[in-house]
Amino acid sequence: NPKESSPFINSSNVEKGKEYDGKNMALFEEEMDTSPMVSSLLSSLANYSNLPQGSKEHEEAENNEEARKKPVKAPRMGTFMGVYLPCLQNIFGVILFLRLTWVVGIGGVMESFCIVFMCCACTMLTAISMSAIATNGVVPAGGSYYMISRSLGPEFGGAVGLCFYLGTTFAGAMYILGTIEILLTYIVPNAAVFKMDGLEGAEAENAMLNNMRIYGTCVLSCMAVVVFVGVKYVNKLALVFLACVIVSIISIYAGVIKSAFDPPDFPICILGNRTLIWKDFDICAKLVEVGNETVTTKLWRLFCDSPFLNATCDQYFTVNNVTEVQGIPGAASGIITENLWSNYMDKGIILEKKGEESVSSDEGTPSFTKNYVISDMTTFFTLLVGIYFPSVTGIMAGSNRSGDLRDAQKSIPIGTILAISTTSFVYMSSIILFGACIEGVVLRDKFGEAVNGNLVIGTLAWPSPWVIVIGSFFSTCGAGLQSLTGAPRLLQAISRDGIVPFLRVFGHGKANGEPTWALLLTASICEIGILIASLDAVAPILSMFFLMCYMFVNLACALQTLLRTPNWRPRFKYYHWTLSFLGMSLCLSLMFICSWYYAIVAMVIAGCIYKYIEYRGPQLLVLVNVDQDQNVKHPQLLSFTNQLKAGKGLTIVGTALEGTYLNNHLQAQRAEQSLRRLMEAEKVKGFCQVVISSNLRDGLSHLIQAGGLGGLKHNTVLVGWPRNWKQAEDHQTWRGFIELVRETTAAHLALLVPKNISAYPSNQERFTEGNIDVWWIVHDGGMLMLLPFLLRQHKVWRKCKMRIFTVAQMDDNSIQMKKDLTIFLYHLRINAEVEVVEMHDSDISAYTYEKTLVMEQRSQILKQMHLTKNEREREIQSITDESRGSIRRKNPANTRIHLTVQDDQAEGSEEKPEEEVQLIHDKNAAPTPASPQSPAEEAETPGEKVHMTWTEKFTGDKNKGKGPSTPEGIKDIFNMKPEWESLNQSNVRRMHTALKLNEVIMKKSQDAKLVLLNMPGPPKNRTGDENYMEFLEVLTEGLNRVLLVRGGGREVITIYS
């Protein structure tokens, strides 16, 4: 192994230099595959990648990409083309053309305006919440589902996504039904399979519904084939369909202006006060003068048994006059006063004109009803809300195109809010203008039968009703195609995420990614809507799903704001939880207004989805030690926990006791009470757990494995640094700690280790200034970035500023690294000062060798602790003799070793210098592992002790510099060269990393209130465990408060969340 070759100092040999490539980061080299260097990942992180790829995979992925990279056009769509126009196209739809005039006629201008205002307010408030979500991280391509699930977690994403999917699918059915209604009612009525001539009442209705079913199924099949064959054609036609909508709306406004001074000629015929269907007659009169002769008209023949004047006629027809009224009196006519108030009707009631004289006939039920315009359904306010609401949906169209936008975070809020403002203005003005221009009975005439079978809104349009008829036909057709295009992709995205396992089959598709199976399911659900066949019955169903979807968006935004969750950092600032709460309440109210039973069904469906998708939130397991009286040794751990959680969220506090449960259950109860008292005092919410085990090591392991339940399972472990690990009598203290590090890594849990916990602030302290410094060396899931953000939510740390340092190696471009890190932090929505510290490959200093030598000698002695007394003493003696001999040969002044056998108690061990290790072992003790106890406790056991002390003495004050400070020192170091050659070079490199990093951290962060640092992993082979603790000690030497952090390997903070 070239890295194990002889070390060198100040060598000019280039080849040897290459062998030590990367020695500055040797401490982290074993985990480079799972936690790559920040410098190697920064450019990709800045470019929207949030995968904790290993450096090997990362390089392979880059190489593969370069091999097959094609020139990709950068997304060029801005706010207008990318968000505003698609939203307009989706919001303006079938209801505007086919039902809005009828809603105004039935509800009156006042109530219709209230309906429109409520629905538009609901979507505007939802858009504000959605803007906050959209700017909470980079919006991934894939629209609203990805945006919500990546930002707020899969349970919200799944519930919103499936509601949105079902809403979009039923919207497809509604658009297809609208297309058929326009086709069969206004364009080619003769194309009907089931003829309606001569039919009335239920028969006529059934014939119409059957026509809708047959044609609807055919159109759905054709559309599904178009979507399956080439979705690109649908996207290309989108602008054509949008043009149809815009032209239609402009023609309506043009018609309104023209009607003020030149109303169009659309007469309606009123018999008494009943409105007649203008179909089988040409003149609105009973009799006409032809020459000098009075002749009966076609109208006469509709009500009488013969065309002669002496015919027997319908009584009502006989006693009432026929009058012709203008259907479009125009904006200047003052008709709005008649249309202000509502005219709700029961099914089968004849439309009557207000203010017309009518003589009632003696007959009970009206006869010849097929000649009158009749209400086809019972109407009421809540029904109108359900039918109208789909006309304001479509606000998520912009977010669905997020992948094509130049700046999605800017475009989505602006484009969506502008589109809703525009459409709301059009709808509200349309309500008033329809009421001001059109006769009330014409408004209430759903299918335009009184105006010769014309589309009612078309009668107002200029220059011709056909502009609206053709425009609305193509726009509803296009909207149906787009629903069938969008819905399967949404289902595919949900299926591929695997959050609802039984949907996974719908994640598969064609080789080019087209969602074949999802399209099949979408078409099947769409067919259900078409079999319902009535536009007025399908509209409330999709209203439910969209309202449910919008309610979840508002709820998510309100909850995230109120809970101040760590992943909630939107850049859009014009939102407030009260607005989201109002939006949510409005959605819920509208759901129950539309249809209380549909609302309950929809809520049950969404609730089941939400519960079904299990999501484990961020939970903390705090491991504490208790003393003999079962009191917590370091209560500051819980203060720090409170600061981390900012008083929110659940925490599990656990401790382990040694022994058996039968003998120690009383101590366990006391320990639990002690933990609970401390949790209450420190305001830590959660529960405590005490485990009794034969040894503490296993107890802690059980806590890590079994703590928590379901959604309350911990994903982060907080444990204190074993402070006296050097002085502890046996290896169990630090060995247990290292095993705990290994276990958390294996379980993919994050680990936080506060060092010098006694120096951490209590909850009552306040820092008025200062820095929290993050030393981000390897990328293991972004936990380092999240922790300062969490701490700064608490009043103790609120005034502290965040600084992020990362280390640049010899080959790194530090200027580019700083730029990339700044961009990455911008995407994370984190405000922090950025600094890149250059750490060039310097030669390994003499001090490094000296430290490593002392460490290895200490490790060698530690290994003897498992030997029997005689073996141990022989081994110690041989090491001592060997070391003494070698040191006498080189330089006796540098290191002294002495062996003493003493009877006195080993007291005051903590006062010894840090570089000195004191190993005490009872002469009579068995070699079995004992429980970790502090030296002071252990010292109370009498007996003969073997007391060995390695003391390192170094020329010059070690704090003045890490290398020799005098020429004599350098000469002494070189005298010791043969001693160093036997050292493990891997350890030398690791010590070099620890010293160099400590040097730069001390230089930059000595005055920081808290230093957060990547915690290197323990060695994969257990032989170097003793050295691992020494490396960590050297790495953090001289720092007041240090938090060592190991990520769980999963991303906890991303540009998306």
Unreliable stretches (pLDDT < 50, length at least 5) are 1-22, 48-63, 65-72, 614-618, 884-976
- SS-based class: alpha/beta
Count of discrete alpha- or pi-helical segments spanning 4 or more residues = 36
The helix content is 40-55%
Average residue pLDDT: 77
Strand content: 5-15%
Can you tell me the overall shape?
A: elongated
Strand order of the largest sheet: 8-7-6-9-10-18-17-11-12-13
Spatial separation of the terminal alpha carbons: 44 Å
Q: How is the biggest beta sheet arranged?
A: 10 strands, mixed
The counted number of beta strands is 18
What is the C-alpha radius of gyration, as a whole number of Å?
40 Å
Relevant terms:
single chain; ten-stranded mixed sheet; potassium:chloride symporter activity; ion transport; SLC12_C; disordered N terminus; three-stranded antiparallel sheet; 18 strands; chloride; 1057 residues; elongated; 51% helix; alpha/beta
What does this entry look like structurally?
This protein is an alpha/beta fold and 1057 residues long. 51% of the residues lie in helices and 10% in strands. It has 36 helices and 18 strands. The chain has a 10-stranded mixed beta sheet with strand order 8-7-6-9-10-18-17-11-12-13, sandwiched between helices. A 3-stranded antiparallel beta sheet has the order 2-1-5, with no helix packed on it. The chain has a 3-stranded antiparallel beta sheet with strand order 14-16-15, with helices on one face.
